Amino acid sequence: MEEAFIYSTIYDPHTGAILNQYAKTIYANANGHHLKWLASQSTIKADDIEKRQGLTGLYRKIDKLGGQVFHTQKGLRITVPEQKWINWKTMSPDSHSNFTQVAWAQMNQFDQVAMMYALCKGQLGNKTIYLDFSKDAKHDDFWISELESMRNYVTELAFHSGVYMQYNPLVYQELAYLNAPLKQTPYPDWNKELHPKFVNFPYSDLTIYWDDDNGGWYIDNAPTERPPSTDENPCSKCSKPYHTRAVSTRRFLLPSRIVF
Predict the structure, then answer these.
(1) H helices within 75-224, ranges in order?
(2) What pTM did the predictor assign?
(3) Which end of the chain is more exposed for a tag (fewer CB within 10 A), N or C?
């Protein structure tokens, strides 16, 4: 399906922008650019699928609750309407589960390690909190239920103590005086940045390359596969040993050039 999509869009000048956006998405995921934005951590250098999926799910749940996510120099900052806290006990089972996950993230947003490990792996670094969620902990098939119970417990504690009413004001106060927005986008801006030379598509294993002279994408339809020698480094974007193009590539693909 991906192969058909690429061929149909790269040959059609009216759908070139769609291909360009898809290439941006694949490229941003592969090199960690999207995860860097999701986590609001400028130090991330590589993708982590588990973390990216965990954060994407968290964003979706926050949005469903009417909350907000702020990208800051100190990491993610989350707000949730207080009314959702007041009504959380009356939610449906699925909504209840989603709320406790968002509440956990809101309570731990000032400790990125605790927030991320709990969202993705049910671990809290090397600390033991009520239950053993350390990296070396041995869990049975019900460890997800253990984590759910833990989230329910701390949510109940925050609710009955009234401490939940302090979360949003703390975020707003920090944003006003002690923190600054993170100037980053979810996808690279190729109007301001250099295009990557190659983008590899994982499902079809097709590779497209950017031609600087003509300002457009071409399909790299003549890769030569061989084990890399000691003086050859793999491509940082698609992990192929290296890329070559047949002389005839452009002749066969002249109709496919897309200019942006």
Answers:
(1) 82-86, 93-107, 112-120, 143-161, 167-177
(2) 0.72
(3) N
